[in-house]
Design a protein that fits this description.
This protein has 235 residues and is of the alpha/beta class. The chain has a single domain, classed as Rossmann fold (3-Layer(aba) Sandwich). The protein contains 7 helices and 10 strands. The chain has a 6-stranded mixed sheet with strand order 6-7-8-3-9-10, with helices on both faces. A 4-stranded antiparallel sheet has the order 2-1-4-5, with helices on one face. The mean pLDDT is 92.
């Protein structure tokens, strides 16, 4: 029996309207991603890669087409149901870190669990500490974001994405604000998480970053123009 893809989209299209003009950003995307994959989505500016990630991450809706997440068709669900799925099944890491500036490392990582009424404060602390341990930051639990380097802030963001044990971790240009050495360290964390069984979908325009993934999908002008298995970079 064929395994049901974790992510499955068919004829996915996205059109934006601006001043009476329509721009088709995604043009009939067909894509399956299995649980446990590490996928990099590449393409130049304007190719549609961020739009595709936002739709896959339930942050935006397609104009047409079908999107199934873990076998559930999601593009017609209510906003409340989408928010619930995002909180329980998905984790996000962004280029700008998006940490609360007056909140400690531990509290920043706990944030996704605050909306889960079934999780006690003690359980939140334990889960956050475990997530921070996985990214090597247990010695910085009480630090504030302005006391952390860029690489440490991104590690906190990764731990925050991990804390609810999501089915997919989405990473949108996660090394865009980091130097080469720190970028490599962050990508090694993603590789280790993938080796531990986490599904990762990464958006990048950098070939050196995409080389860490096991599969590379290339977009151009809203269409998939390449989908290849990759030999991950050695470090």
């Amino acid at each position: 029996m064929t395994e049901t893809p974790l992510v499955s989209v068919r004829d996915l299209r996205k059109t934006y309207l601006n001043g009476g003009l329509s721009t088709e950003v995604l043009k009939g995307i067909n894509l399956d991603i299995q649980s446990g994959e590490f996928v990099a989505i590449m393409g130049p500016s304007g190719s549609g890669k961020s739009t595709l990630m936002h739709i896959l991450g339930l942050l935006d809706r397609p104009t047409s087409g079908i999107y199934q997440l873990a076998g559930e068709q999601v593009n017609r669900l209510s906003e409340d149901r989408l928010a619930d799925l995002r909180n329980r099944k998905l984790g996000f890491v962004f280029q700008a870190f998006n940490l609360l500036p007056r909140t400690s490392t531990l509290e920043n990582v706990e944030l996704p669990l605050i909306y889960n009424r079934e999780t006690s404060a003690a359980e939140r602390h334990m889960a956050a500490e475990a997530a921070l341990q996985s990214v090597g930051l247990t010695h910085r639990l009480r630090a504030m974001p302005n006391q952390l380097s860029g690489g440490e802030q991104q590690r906190v963001a990764i731990a925050r994405a991990l804390v609810s044990n999501p089915q997919i971790i989405f990473a949108d240009e996660p090394t865009g604000n980091l130097d080469t050495k720190t970028s490599t360290e962050i990508m090694e964390i993603f590789r280790n998480l993938n080796n531990a069984g986490h599904t990762i979908i990464l958006v990048t325009h950098e070939i050196d970053i995409a080389r860490f993934a096991r599969r590379v999908i290339n977009l151009r002008d809203g269409s998939i123009v390449g989908d290849i298995l990759n030999s991950p970079a050695a470090v």
